[in-house]
Design brief:
β5 and β6 form a beta hairpin. The protein is globular. Helices cover 46% and strands 18% of the residues. It has 193 residues and is an alpha/beta fold. Strands 1, 2, 3, 4, 5 and 6 form a 6-stranded mixed beta sheet that branches.
């Protein structure tokens, strides 16, 4: 019988989270060397998504969505649609679910469509404490803030975990630097409208 691994917080890890972490350790170790370009990219990503995270869960000194002119439901929908179209996600490449349990149920499908191919972008995440886009930016922020990311062959792999009775996978994203830059700049572009 397989025992579930225990996290540093003393919580059990779900089967899917264990499988996901194992696949990263075995197949997706960081291969891109730390050159000037990669160091510069990481510096920008940390600034954009950790220090300037627009979510309610971001640092106190960060700007919130209304600072960028995103105030109504229509604004949030326009922002979401613009992110999806500008970064060129496949039709089913934006996956927003209401629980980590549901994301883990979809994991095999995500694994076969996106991770194993290694060349498709995907944003899969679950609802956090606030709305959809707040959850998206929070999941990206937490991936960078907690070191849950790596770059391989031009793609950033980001993930998040939620802790309850057991830790579960809460987000999984595969995005290029250009797409992450666009997610940041699309939001900044709202301010000028």
């Amino acid at each position: 019988m397989d025992k579930k691994q225990v996290t540093t917080a003393g919580k059990m890890k779900s089967k899917v989270l264990i499988e996901f972490r194992k696949s990263i350790e075995e197949y997706y170790k960081r291969k891109d060397k730390d050159n000037t370009k990669n160091i510069s990219e990481r510096r920008d990503l940390l600034l954009w998504f950790v220090d300037e995270c627009p979510s309610k869960a971001g640092p106190e000194n960060s700007m919130k969505f209304d600072y960028y002119g995103v105030k109504s439901g229509a604004d949030y929908k326009r922002l979401k649609d613009k992110i999806i179209s500008n970064i060129g996600l496949e039709e089913d490449g934006y996956i927003f679910l209401d629980s980590a349990k549901k994301l883990e149920e979809e994991y095999e499908d995500i694994q076969s469509k996106y991770i194993s191919r290694g060349n498709n972008q995907v944003i899969a995440f679950v609802k956090g404490e606030s709305g959809q886009l707040d959850s998206l930016y929070t999941r990206i922020r937490n991936s960078f803030a907690h070191g849950n990311y790596f770059k391989k062959k031009g793609y950033y792999y980001l993930w998040n975990e939620v802790v309850g009775k057991e830790s579960k996978l809460a987000s999984l994203m595969i995005l290029t630097f250009k797409s992450l830059e666009q997610i940041h700049s699309i939001l900044k572009g709202f301010k000028s409208k």
